[in-house]
Structures are given as structure tokens and as C-alpha cells.
Write the C-alpha cells for this entry.
Amino acid sequence: MPVLDLQQLNQFLAEHFPQGDQYGVLESVGRGSAVMRLAVSEQHLRPGGSVSGPAMMALADVAVYAALLTRIGPVALAVTSNLNINFLRKPLADADLIADARMLKVGRMLAVGEVYLYSGKAAAAEASDPVAHATLTYAIPQ
């Protein structure tokens, strides 16, 4: 059972990270996992009709942050200390981006998570090939 459920996490993010909704919408959470969806629009595209790297990194970051909070609770000052992303294929410009995040390890001071990004309207579990994969480390305040 997650420390924070979907409703509690959405409320926490609205209060402490109100700009976060520009990076996607939280669709579901579990203990140490989160799924987010970004409705891709013109502001997320780069020349050539591809979703920009910064848009994909922001979605990945917020998704892992949400997954982390399901384990540690409402800790506003947990911050990203490392983000590594591999862009695997060009995402569709006219489709949502879906982030499927999960925590790999949650310690007292550091947490490591991963996220797969998918392009399309289907749920992440139904999508075929990821467009990106990222690993993130978060520093947890004492």
C-alpha cells in the first residue's frame, strides 16, 4: 500500500509543486510506482516535429518524484541529484507521452528510480517500444 494514494499525491503536488501540471498528469500510483501522461502540444515540440528532450526529461523527473513520494510520504524538499536519460526512438508528435516510473531503491538519504517513456494513446503496459529510458537519483532531506 502506498504511503500516499493518488488523490493525496495530486493534492500535495498542487500545493507544493503547482507548476508540475505543465509536465504531465498523474494517472495512477502504487507503492513505489507512478504513471503520468503528458498531452503533447506545440510547446513540447522541437524543429522536425519531435518531442523535445527537456519535455521528456521533465516528465521523467516528475514521474519518479511521484513514485518516490508513494514510499517516503509528503517530503517537499526531496530533490533530484542525478538524471540520466537515453533517447531510444523518435516519439510521435501527435500522441501523448506516457511515463511508467518505479523506485529501484529507497534508502535514508538517497533513492534511485527508473522510468520508461512511451509514445501513444495506450496505457504504458500496452505500449510496444519505449521512446526513452531514464534513471534518477533523489537526495532525501534528513
Observations:
- The first strand starts at residue 25 and ends at 30.
